[in-house]
Design a protein that fits this description.
The protein has about 210 residues and is of the alpha/beta class. It folds into two domains: about 70 residues, no CATH class; about 120 residues, Ribose 5-phosphate Isomerase B, Chain: A, CATH 3.40.1400.10. Helices cover about 40% and strands about 20% of the residues. α6 packs parallel to α7.
């Protein structure tokens, strides 16, 4: 990333769309430059933000998991709760507990909120496809959710992008497939500094909303 003490509109206009820049600790962005940076979707990382980058990576050992799903999730959720607890993981069942229809944004937020607050290491959210729950969970600060349909995606999600919320589709994966996906999610740490550095860019995007 290119480092700036001051960013002027002239500087901002020649930066590549969607790129990232590093602003010095006491650096300054002119008002016109700020407008141009927003228009060009340029991420500004402030110097010093990288001090706690390691803390952005998910815990290598997941010991507490919040689990929630909509009304389609009950059999799959029950199977996963048994599996998680059988592995010695503390798994919190946050609902739903009946076949009465419930909206996935609600159940996804129930499980993702403790992760966002640092009260749980990770979460598993379930709906019919898993896509809606992933979208909803990602609206919470610090959440990186992905819908995974096989163990490879779960491994990539953890190792490369540090996902802390796993979304599953109750109509897409069987209990056996889901257990394998969850195992890959639990067993894959995020260690590469280059991948962890990119979590800082994601955090900067959250702060620049």
């Amino acid at each position: 990333m290119k480092r700036f003490e001051i960013v002027t509109e002239a500087d901002a206009r020649v930066l590549e769309h969607g790129s990232a820049i590093l602003l010095a600790r006491r650096g300054h962005i002119t008002p016109l430059a700020a407008d141009t940076l927003r228009a060009r979707r340029i991420v500004v990382v402030r110097e010093g933000d990288d001090v706690d980058l390691a803390s952005l990576a998910p815990p290598a050992k997941i010991e507490t998991v919040a689990v929630a799903g909509d009304h389609t999730s009950l059999p799959l959720k029950a199977a996963l709760l048994r599996h998680l607890r059988g592995r010695g993981v503390t798994a919190h069942d946050l609902g739903t507990h009946s076949t009465e229809p419930v909206d996935y944004p609600h159940t996804a937020s129930l499980a993702a909120t403790p992760v966002s607050r640092g009260e749980c290491h990770a979460a598993v959210v379930i709906d019919g496809s898993g896509i809606g729950s992933a979208i909803a969970a990602n609206k919470l600060a610090g959440i990186r959710a992905a819908m995974c349909v096989n163990p490879m995606l779960a491994r990539y999600g953890r190792e490369h992008t540090g996902i802390n919320v796993l979304a599953l589709g109750s109509t897409i994966v069987s209990p056996d497939e889901a257990r394998a996906i969850v195992d890959a999610f639990l067993d894959t740490p995020m260690r590469e500094p280059r991948y962890i550095r990119r979590l800082g860019l994601i955090r900067a995007l959250e702060r620049n909303r």
